[in-house]
Amino acid sequence: MKITFLGAAGEVTGSQHLIETDGRRILLDCGLFQGHRAESFKKNCRFAYPAESLDAVILSHGHMDHCGNIPRLYNKGFRGPIFCTSATADIAEIMLKDSARIQDEDARYLSRKLNEKHPPIEPLYDEEDVRQVMKQFERLDYHEWHDLGDDLRVRLLDAGHILGSAIIEMKIKDQGEWRHLVFTGDLGRRDLPLLRDPDTIEGCEILISESTYGNRVHEKASDLKEELYHILDEAYRVEGRVIIPAFSLGRTQQIIYYLNDLYNENRLPHIPIFVDSPLSTRLVSVYRHHLQDMDQDVSDVLKEDKDPFGFSLLDYVSTRQQSIELNKREGAFVVIAGSGMCENGRIRHHLKNGLEHPENTVVLMGYQAEHTLGRRLQQRDPKVKIFDRYYQVKARVVQLSGLSGHADVEDFKWWYETSAKRGNIGQVFLVHGEPESATALAALIRDEVDEEPIIPQYQQSFEV
Protein backbone atom coordinates (compact mmCIF):
# COMPACT_ATOMS: atom_id res chain seq x y z
CA MET A 1 0.00 0.00 0.00
CA LYS A 2 1.23 3.47 -0.91
CA ILE A 3 0.42 6.72 0.92
CA THR A 4 1.18 10.09 -0.67
CA PHE A 5 0.85 13.25 1.41
CA LEU A 6 -0.49 15.97 -0.87
CA GLY A 7 -1.36 18.61 1.72
CA ALA A 8 -1.14 19.43 5.42
CA ALA A 9 2.35 17.91 5.35
CA GLY A 10 4.76 20.11 7.30
CA GLU A 11 2.00 22.74 7.53
CA VAL A 12 -1.57 23.11 8.79
CA THR A 13 -3.56 23.68 5.62
CA GLY A 14 -4.74 21.81 2.51
CA SER A 15 -5.42 18.39 4.07
CA GLN A 16 -5.16 15.73 1.34
CA HIS A 17 -3.77 12.19 1.60
CA LEU A 18 -3.87 9.62 -1.20
CA ILE A 19 -4.15 5.90 -0.35
CA GLU A 20 -3.32 3.47 -3.18
CA THR A 21 -3.59 -0.31 -3.20
CA ASP A 22 -3.52 -2.82 -6.06
CA GLY A 23 -7.26 -2.22 -6.53
CA ARG A 24 -8.19 1.17 -5.03
CA ARG A 25 -7.37 4.87 -5.07
CA ILE A 26 -8.92 6.59 -2.05
CA LEU A 27 -8.46 10.25 -1.09
CA LEU A 28 -8.68 11.27 2.56
CA ASP A 29 -9.91 14.89 2.61
CA CYS A 30 -9.54 17.42 -0.18
CA GLY A 31 -8.94 20.76 1.51
CA LEU A 32 -8.00 24.20 0.30
CA PHE A 33 -4.48 25.51 0.78
CA GLN A 34 -4.78 28.88 2.48
CA GLY A 35 -2.06 31.52 2.62
CA HIS A 36 -0.29 33.70 0.04
CA ARG A 37 -2.70 34.05 -2.89
CA ALA A 38 -0.43 33.07 -5.81
CA GLU A 39 1.18 30.09 -4.08
CA SER A 40 -2.12 28.80 -2.73
CA PHE A 41 -3.90 29.14 -6.07
CA LYS A 42 -1.12 27.17 -7.80
CA LYS A 43 -1.45 24.30 -5.29
CA ASN A 44 -5.26 24.36 -5.33
CA CYS A 45 -5.50 24.54 -9.11
CA ARG A 46 -3.67 21.31 -9.94
CA PHE A 47 -4.00 17.79 -8.58
CA ALA A 48 -1.11 15.32 -8.50
CA TYR A 49 -3.30 12.61 -10.09
CA PRO A 50 -6.09 12.48 -12.67
CA ALA A 51 -9.24 13.40 -10.73
CA GLU A 52 -11.28 10.77 -12.58
CA SER A 53 -8.89 8.04 -11.37
CA LEU A 54 -10.11 8.29 -7.76
CA ASP A 55 -12.51 5.62 -6.53
CA ALA A 56 -13.77 7.67 -3.59
CA VAL A 57 -13.14 10.53 -1.19
CA ILE A 58 -13.59 10.07 2.55
CA LEU A 59 -14.07 13.39 4.32
CA SER A 60 -13.20 13.95 7.98
CA HIS A 61 -15.13 17.21 8.54
CA GLY A 62 -16.43 20.46 7.09
CA HIS A 63 -13.65 22.98 7.69
CA MET A 64 -12.43 24.52 4.43
CA ASP A 65 -8.85 23.28 4.81
CA HIS A 66 -10.31 19.75 4.73
CA CYS A 67 -13.25 19.94 2.29
CA GLY A 68 -12.79 23.22 0.43
CA ASN A 69 -11.33 21.88 -2.85
CA ILE A 70 -13.82 19.04 -3.44
CA PRO A 71 -15.77 21.05 -6.08
CA ARG A 72 -12.52 21.59 -7.98
CA LEU A 73 -12.09 17.81 -7.96
CA TYR A 74 -15.54 17.52 -9.56
CA ASN A 75 -14.63 20.24 -12.06
CA LYS A 76 -11.63 18.16 -13.11
CA GLY A 77 -13.61 14.96 -13.66
CA PHE A 78 -14.11 13.16 -10.32
CA ARG A 79 -17.49 11.38 -10.23
CA GLY A 80 -17.06 8.90 -7.36
CA PRO A 81 -18.74 8.85 -3.94
CA ILE A 82 -17.77 11.17 -1.07
CA PHE A 83 -18.29 9.50 2.31
CA CYS A 84 -18.78 11.48 5.53
CA THR A 85 -21.18 11.96 8.44
CA SER A 86 -24.59 13.51 7.86
CA ALA A 87 -23.71 16.70 9.75
CA THR A 88 -20.51 17.11 7.73
CA ALA A 89 -22.45 16.83 4.46
CA ASP A 90 -24.85 19.57 5.62
CA ILE A 91 -22.01 21.82 6.80
CA ALA A 92 -19.94 21.24 3.65
CA GLU A 93 -22.81 22.27 1.38
CA ILE A 94 -23.15 25.62 3.16
CA MET A 95 -19.40 26.25 3.38
CA LEU A 96 -18.71 25.32 -0.26
CA LYS A 97 -21.51 27.50 -1.62
CA ASP A 98 -20.14 30.39 0.41
CA SER A 99 -16.62 29.67 -0.88
CA ALA A 100 -17.83 29.67 -4.51
CA ARG A 101 -19.56 33.02 -3.97
CA ILE A 102 -16.45 34.59 -2.40
CA GLN A 103 -14.20 33.29 -5.20
CA ASP A 104 -16.52 34.77 -7.81
CA GLU A 105 -16.56 38.15 -6.04
CA ASP A 106 -12.76 38.11 -5.62
CA ALA A 107 -12.22 37.24 -9.29
CA ARG A 108 -14.49 40.09 -10.41
CA TYR A 109 -12.75 42.56 -8.09
CA LEU A 110 -9.21 41.55 -9.12
CA SER A 111 -10.14 41.59 -12.82
CA ARG A 112 -11.11 45.26 -12.49
CA LYS A 113 -7.79 46.07 -10.80
CA LEU A 114 -5.46 44.32 -13.29
CA ASN A 115 -4.23 45.69 -16.60
CA GLU A 116 -5.65 44.42 -19.89
CA LYS A 117 -2.63 42.20 -20.68
CA HIS A 118 -2.96 40.19 -17.45
CA PRO A 119 -4.46 36.70 -17.91
CA PRO A 120 -8.10 36.53 -16.74
CA ILE A 121 -8.66 35.64 -13.07
CA GLU A 122 -10.77 32.50 -12.75
CA PRO A 123 -12.32 30.99 -9.60
CA LEU A 124 -11.32 27.42 -8.74
CA TYR A 125 -14.98 26.43 -9.06
CA ASP A 126 -18.46 27.93 -9.17
CA GLU A 127 -21.81 27.31 -7.50
CA GLU A 128 -22.86 24.86 -10.23
CA ASP A 129 -19.80 22.70 -9.41
CA VAL A 130 -20.90 22.75 -5.75
CA ARG A 131 -24.47 21.79 -6.62
CA GLN A 132 -23.32 18.89 -8.76
CA VAL A 133 -20.68 17.53 -6.40
CA MET A 134 -23.12 17.54 -3.46
CA LYS A 135 -25.06 14.80 -5.31
CA GLN A 136 -22.03 12.54 -4.77
CA PHE A 137 -22.07 12.82 -0.96
CA GLU A 138 -23.04 9.63 0.87
CA ARG A 139 -23.85 9.88 4.58
CA LEU A 140 -22.50 7.30 7.03
CA ASP A 141 -23.57 6.86 10.65
CA TYR A 142 -21.00 7.00 13.45
CA HIS A 143 -19.63 3.80 15.02
CA GLU A 144 -20.92 1.33 12.41
CA TRP A 145 -18.76 -0.62 9.98
CA HIS A 146 -19.88 0.09 6.41
CA ASP A 147 -18.99 -2.36 3.62
CA LEU A 148 -18.10 -0.23 0.59
CA GLY A 149 -17.11 -3.12 -1.62
CA ASP A 150 -15.53 -6.54 -1.12
CA ASP A 151 -12.14 -4.90 -0.45
CA LEU A 152 -13.05 -1.86 1.68
CA ARG A 153 -14.73 -1.35 5.05
CA VAL A 154 -15.04 2.04 6.76
CA ARG A 155 -16.06 3.13 10.24
CA LEU A 156 -16.41 6.75 11.39
CA LEU A 157 -15.68 7.56 15.02
CA ASP A 158 -16.37 10.90 16.72
CA ALA A 159 -13.31 13.18 16.54
CA GLY A 160 -14.81 15.80 18.90
CA HIS A 161 -13.38 18.68 16.82
CA ILE A 162 -16.50 20.30 15.33
CA LEU A 163 -20.03 19.05 14.74
CA GLY A 164 -19.87 16.00 12.47
CA SER A 165 -16.09 15.61 12.63
CA ALA A 166 -14.84 12.05 12.27
CA ILE A 167 -11.87 9.81 12.85
CA ILE A 168 -11.75 7.65 9.71
CA GLU A 169 -11.05 3.97 10.29
CA MET A 170 -10.42 1.85 7.18
CA LYS A 171 -9.89 -1.84 6.56
CA ILE A 172 -8.69 -2.14 3.00
CA LYS A 173 -7.50 -5.22 1.07
CA ASP A 174 -4.15 -4.99 -0.72
CA GLN A 175 -2.56 -7.93 -2.54
CA GLY A 176 -4.97 -10.30 -0.81
CA GLU A 177 -4.29 -9.03 2.73
CA TRP A 178 -6.45 -6.78 4.90
CA ARG A 179 -4.70 -3.64 6.12
CA HIS A 180 -5.93 -1.46 9.01
CA LEU A 181 -5.48 2.33 8.63
CA VAL A 182 -6.79 5.19 10.79
CA PHE A 183 -6.86 8.91 9.98
CA THR A 184 -7.64 11.20 12.92
CA GLY A 185 -8.72 14.16 10.78
CA ASP A 186 -8.54 17.03 13.26
CA LEU A 187 -8.59 15.47 16.71
CA GLY A 188 -10.65 17.43 19.21
CA ARG A 189 -10.40 18.11 22.93
CA ARG A 190 -12.16 16.82 25.99
CA ASP A 191 -14.80 18.91 27.78
CA LEU A 192 -15.57 21.33 24.94
CA PRO A 193 -19.09 22.80 24.88
CA LEU A 194 -21.57 21.02 22.57
CA LEU A 195 -19.14 18.30 21.46
CA ARG A 196 -18.63 14.77 22.68
CA ASP A 197 -15.10 13.85 23.74
CA PRO A 198 -13.02 12.22 20.98
CA ASP A 199 -13.40 8.46 20.59
CA THR A 200 -10.27 6.38 21.05
CA ILE A 201 -9.28 3.53 18.72
CA GLU A 202 -8.49 -0.15 19.22
CA GLY A 203 -5.04 0.02 17.66
CA CYS A 204 -4.14 -0.06 13.95
CA GLU A 205 -1.26 -0.83 11.60
CA ILE A 206 -1.02 2.68 10.16
CA LEU A 207 -2.11 5.94 11.79
CA ILE A 208 -2.19 9.34 10.10
CA SER A 209 -2.50 11.83 12.95
CA GLU A 210 -2.87 15.60 13.13
CA SER A 211 -0.30 17.43 15.28
CA THR A 212 -1.44 21.08 15.27
CA TYR A 213 -0.85 21.74 18.98
CA GLY A 214 1.54 18.93 19.82
CA ASN A 215 3.67 21.40 21.81
CA ARG A 216 1.01 23.43 23.63
CA VAL A 217 -1.45 23.30 26.54
CA HIS A 218 -4.75 25.15 26.05
CA GLU A 219 -6.64 27.08 28.69
CA LYS A 220 -9.79 25.39 30.01
CA ALA A 221 -12.98 26.07 28.05
CA SER A 222 -15.05 26.06 31.23
CA ASP A 223 -13.44 29.31 32.42
CA LEU A 224 -14.63 31.19 29.37
CA LYS A 225 -18.32 31.32 30.32
CA GLU A 226 -17.50 33.19 33.53
CA GLU A 227 -15.22 35.59 31.68
CA LEU A 228 -18.02 36.31 29.19
CA TYR A 229 -20.41 36.99 32.07
CA HIS A 230 -18.08 39.59 33.62
CA ILE A 231 -17.50 41.32 30.26
CA LEU A 232 -21.24 41.60 29.58
CA ASP A 233 -21.98 42.71 33.13
CA GLU A 234 -19.45 45.55 32.79
CA ALA A 235 -20.83 46.55 29.36
CA TYR A 236 -24.32 46.72 30.84
CA ARG A 237 -23.04 48.95 33.65
CA VAL A 238 -21.22 51.45 31.38
CA GLU A 239 -23.67 51.14 28.46
CA GLY A 240 -20.99 49.98 26.05
CA ARG A 241 -20.89 47.68 23.04
CA VAL A 242 -19.26 44.26 23.12
CA ILE A 243 -17.88 43.38 19.68
CA ILE A 244 -16.96 39.71 19.22
CA PRO A 245 -15.21 38.61 16.00
CA ALA A 246 -15.87 34.87 15.68
CA PHE A 247 -15.45 32.16 13.08
CA SER A 248 -18.82 31.23 11.58
CA LEU A 249 -18.36 27.48 12.03
CA GLY A 250 -17.91 26.16 15.55
CA ARG A 251 -16.79 29.20 17.51
CA THR A 252 -19.98 31.26 17.03
CA GLN A 253 -22.21 28.34 18.02
CA GLN A 254 -20.13 27.69 21.16
CA ILE A 255 -20.39 31.34 22.24
CA ILE A 256 -24.17 31.35 21.70
CA TYR A 257 -24.46 28.14 23.72
CA TYR A 258 -22.59 29.67 26.68
CA LEU A 259 -24.74 32.82 26.52
CA ASN A 260 -27.84 30.62 26.44
CA ASP A 261 -26.51 28.86 29.55
CA LEU A 262 -26.14 32.20 31.34
CA TYR A 263 -29.67 33.15 30.29
CA ASN A 264 -31.08 29.87 31.63
CA GLU A 265 -29.23 30.46 34.90
CA ASN A 266 -30.80 33.96 35.15
CA ARG A 267 -27.30 35.47 35.18
CA LEU A 268 -27.23 37.11 31.75
CA PRO A 269 -27.41 40.91 32.01
CA HIS A 270 -30.44 42.36 30.20
CA ILE A 271 -28.43 43.28 27.13
CA PRO A 272 -29.48 42.62 23.50
CA ILE A 273 -27.26 40.17 21.59
CA PHE A 274 -27.04 40.12 17.77
CA VAL A 275 -25.46 37.49 15.55
CA ASP A 276 -24.57 39.50 12.45
CA SER A 277 -23.40 36.78 10.07
CA PRO A 278 -25.64 35.13 7.45
CA LEU A 279 -23.19 32.22 7.21
CA SER A 280 -23.26 31.67 10.98
CA THR A 281 -27.05 31.78 10.94
CA ARG A 282 -27.24 29.10 8.24
CA LEU A 283 -24.80 26.94 10.19
CA VAL A 284 -26.82 27.34 13.41
CA SER A 285 -29.71 25.70 11.57
CA VAL A 286 -27.45 22.68 10.93
CA TYR A 287 -26.56 22.53 14.63
CA ARG A 288 -30.26 22.61 15.53
CA HIS A 289 -30.87 19.74 13.09
CA HIS A 290 -28.11 17.57 14.58
CA LEU A 291 -28.65 17.94 18.33
CA GLN A 292 -28.46 14.15 18.64
CA ASP A 293 -24.75 14.31 17.68
CA MET A 294 -23.86 16.53 20.65
CA ASP A 295 -22.73 15.77 24.19
CA GLN A 296 -24.65 14.76 27.30
CA ASP A 297 -24.72 18.34 28.57
CA VAL A 298 -26.79 19.34 25.52
CA SER A 299 -29.14 16.41 26.15
CA ASP A 300 -29.62 17.62 29.72
CA VAL A 301 -30.28 21.19 28.57
CA LEU A 302 -32.88 19.96 26.07
CA LYS A 303 -34.97 18.54 28.92
CA GLU A 304 -35.71 22.12 30.00
CA ASP A 305 -34.87 24.18 26.90
CA LYS A 306 -35.96 23.15 23.40
CA ASP A 307 -33.51 25.49 21.66
CA PRO A 308 -29.98 25.92 23.07
CA PHE A 309 -29.26 28.41 20.25
CA GLY A 310 -32.10 30.81 20.92
CA PHE A 311 -33.41 32.96 23.80
CA SER A 312 -35.37 36.19 24.12
CA LEU A 313 -32.35 38.53 24.16
CA LEU A 314 -30.81 36.96 21.04
CA ASP A 315 -31.50 38.06 17.45
CA TYR A 316 -30.05 36.76 14.19
CA VAL A 317 -29.39 39.63 11.76
CA SER A 318 -30.07 38.72 8.15
CA THR A 319 -30.00 41.80 5.91
CA ARG A 320 -27.24 44.29 5.24
CA GLN A 321 -29.60 47.12 6.24
CA GLN A 322 -30.22 45.53 9.65
CA SER A 323 -26.45 45.27 10.11
CA ILE A 324 -26.01 48.96 9.27
CA GLU A 325 -28.76 49.90 11.75
CA LEU A 326 -26.78 48.23 14.57
CA ASN A 327 -24.04 50.82 14.17
CA LYS A 328 -26.57 53.58 14.89
CA ARG A 329 -27.89 51.82 17.98
CA GLU A 330 -27.35 53.44 21.39
CA GLY A 331 -26.77 51.80 24.74
CA ALA A 332 -25.32 48.43 25.64
CA PHE A 333 -25.48 45.51 23.22
CA VAL A 334 -23.39 42.60 21.96
CA VAL A 335 -22.63 41.86 18.31
CA ILE A 336 -21.05 38.59 17.15
CA ALA A 337 -19.84 38.68 13.53
CA GLY A 338 -17.29 37.09 11.20
CA SER A 339 -14.46 36.82 10.61
CA GLY A 340 -12.53 35.51 13.58
CA MET A 341 -9.33 37.37 12.63
CA CYS A 342 -11.22 40.53 11.54
CA GLU A 343 -9.99 40.28 7.97
CA ASN A 344 -13.31 40.54 6.13
CA GLY A 345 -17.06 40.51 6.56
CA ARG A 346 -19.34 42.67 8.65
CA ILE A 347 -17.08 42.69 11.72
CA ARG A 348 -14.88 45.34 10.13
CA HIS A 349 -17.80 47.76 9.98
CA HIS A 350 -18.59 47.17 13.65
CA LEU A 351 -14.95 47.72 14.59
CA LYS A 352 -14.76 50.88 12.48
CA ASN A 353 -17.74 52.28 14.36
CA GLY A 354 -16.80 51.01 17.81
CA LEU A 355 -13.03 51.14 18.33
CA GLU A 356 -12.76 54.84 19.16
CA HIS A 357 -15.17 54.67 22.13
CA PRO A 358 -13.58 53.75 25.51
CA GLU A 359 -16.82 52.28 26.92
CA ASN A 360 -16.75 49.53 24.26
CA THR A 361 -15.02 46.16 24.45
CA VAL A 362 -13.58 43.98 21.67
CA VAL A 363 -13.39 40.29 22.62
CA LEU A 364 -10.89 38.28 20.57
CA MET A 365 -11.48 34.53 20.57
CA GLY A 366 -8.49 32.32 19.90
CA TYR A 367 -5.50 32.54 17.58
CA GLN A 368 -4.83 35.68 15.53
CA ALA A 369 -2.48 35.12 12.60
CA GLU A 370 0.36 37.50 11.75
CA HIS A 371 -0.46 40.52 9.58
CA THR A 372 -4.20 40.36 10.36
CA LEU A 373 -6.32 43.12 11.88
CA GLY A 374 -7.04 40.73 14.77
CA ARG A 375 -3.30 40.39 15.51
CA ARG A 376 -2.86 44.18 15.50
CA LEU A 377 -5.71 44.53 17.99
CA GLN A 378 -4.32 41.68 20.07
CA GLN A 379 -0.91 43.36 20.36
CA ARG A 380 -2.64 46.63 21.36
CA ASP A 381 -1.57 48.79 18.42
CA PRO A 382 -2.67 52.36 19.26
CA LYS A 383 -4.31 52.75 15.85
CA VAL A 384 -5.35 50.32 13.12
CA LYS A 385 -6.26 50.66 9.46
CA ILE A 386 -9.75 49.65 8.33
CA PHE A 387 -11.04 50.40 4.81
CA ASP A 388 -8.09 52.71 4.00
CA ARG A 389 -8.48 54.85 7.11
CA TYR A 390 -6.80 54.75 10.52
CA TYR A 391 -8.84 54.49 13.72
CA GLN A 392 -7.64 55.10 17.28
CA VAL A 393 -8.02 52.01 19.48
CA LYS A 394 -9.68 53.45 22.59
CA ALA A 395 -11.97 50.47 23.24
CA ARG A 396 -10.83 47.81 25.67
CA VAL A 397 -9.42 44.72 23.92
CA VAL A 398 -9.78 41.39 25.73
CA GLN A 399 -8.26 38.08 24.61
CA LEU A 400 -10.23 34.95 25.58
CA SER A 401 -8.80 31.51 24.92
CA GLY A 402 -10.02 28.04 25.69
CA LEU A 403 -12.28 27.23 22.73
CA SER A 404 -9.67 25.83 20.35
CA GLY A 405 -11.11 22.69 18.79
CA HIS A 406 -7.71 20.99 18.40
CA ALA A 407 -6.22 18.52 20.86
CA ASP A 408 -3.36 19.89 22.95
CA VAL A 409 -0.46 18.04 24.59
CA GLU A 410 -2.61 16.69 27.42
CA ASP A 411 -5.35 15.52 25.04
CA PHE A 412 -2.84 13.81 22.75
CA LYS A 413 -1.22 12.09 25.73
CA TRP A 414 -4.60 10.80 26.94
CA TRP A 415 -5.71 9.72 23.45
CA TYR A 416 -2.53 7.83 22.55
CA GLU A 417 -2.17 6.16 25.95
CA THR A 418 -5.81 5.06 26.00
CA SER A 419 -5.78 3.87 22.38
CA ALA A 420 -2.50 1.97 22.84
CA LYS A 421 -3.96 0.11 25.81
CA ARG A 422 -6.80 -1.07 23.57
CA GLY A 423 -4.50 -2.34 20.80
CA ASN A 424 -1.05 -1.88 19.23
CA ILE A 425 -0.46 1.24 17.14
CA GLY A 426 2.05 0.57 14.35
CA GLN A 427 3.48 3.23 12.04
CA VAL A 428 2.40 6.82 12.75
CA PHE A 429 2.58 9.69 10.26
CA LEU A 430 2.23 13.16 11.81
CA VAL A 431 0.53 15.74 9.60
CA HIS A 432 -1.36 19.05 9.93
CA GLY A 433 1.26 20.69 12.11
CA GLU A 434 4.18 23.07 11.89
CA PRO A 435 7.56 21.29 12.26
CA GLU A 436 8.00 22.30 15.92
CA SER A 437 4.63 20.92 17.05
CA ALA A 438 4.94 17.72 14.99
CA THR A 439 8.44 17.07 16.38
CA ALA A 440 7.22 17.64 19.95
CA LEU A 441 4.29 15.24 19.45
CA ALA A 442 6.61 12.60 17.97
CA ALA A 443 8.66 12.70 21.18
CA LEU A 444 5.52 12.59 23.34
CA ILE A 445 4.04 9.46 21.71
CA ARG A 446 7.20 7.50 20.99
CA ASP A 447 6.64 5.04 23.83
CA GLU A 448 3.01 4.40 22.82
CA VAL A 449 3.66 3.30 19.23
CA ASP A 450 5.58 0.45 17.61
CA GLU A 451 7.65 2.43 15.10
CA GLU A 452 9.47 5.76 15.12
CA PRO A 453 6.88 8.42 14.11
CA ILE A 454 7.39 9.92 10.65
CA ILE A 455 6.79 13.58 9.77
CA PRO A 456 6.13 13.50 6.00
CA GLN A 457 6.81 16.42 3.68
CA TYR A 458 4.62 17.77 0.90
CA GLN A 459 4.18 15.26 -1.97
CA GLN A 460 6.26 12.62 -0.17
CA SER A 461 5.18 8.97 -0.68
CA PHE A 462 5.65 5.90 1.52
CA GLU A 463 5.20 2.18 0.89
CA VAL A 464 3.68 0.61 3.99
Automatic annotation (TrEMBL):
Keyword Zinc appears in the UniProt entry: no
Organism: Gimesia benthica
Matches recorded under CDD domains: TTHA0252-CPSF-like_MBL-fold
SMART domains documented for this protein: Beta-Casp, Lactamase_B
PANTHER family reported for this sequence: CLEAVAGE AND POLYADENYLATION SPECIFICITY FACTOR FAMILY MEMBER, INTEGRATOR COMPLEX SUBUNIT 11
Keyword Protein biosynthesis: no
GO molecular function list: hydrolase activity; RNA endonuclease activity
Keywords of the record: Hydrolase
The name this protein goes by in its record: MBL fold metallo-hydrolase
Record domain Metallo-beta-lactamase: where: 13-232
Superkingdom, taxonomy of origin: Bacteria
Domain Beta-Casp: residue ranges: 252-377
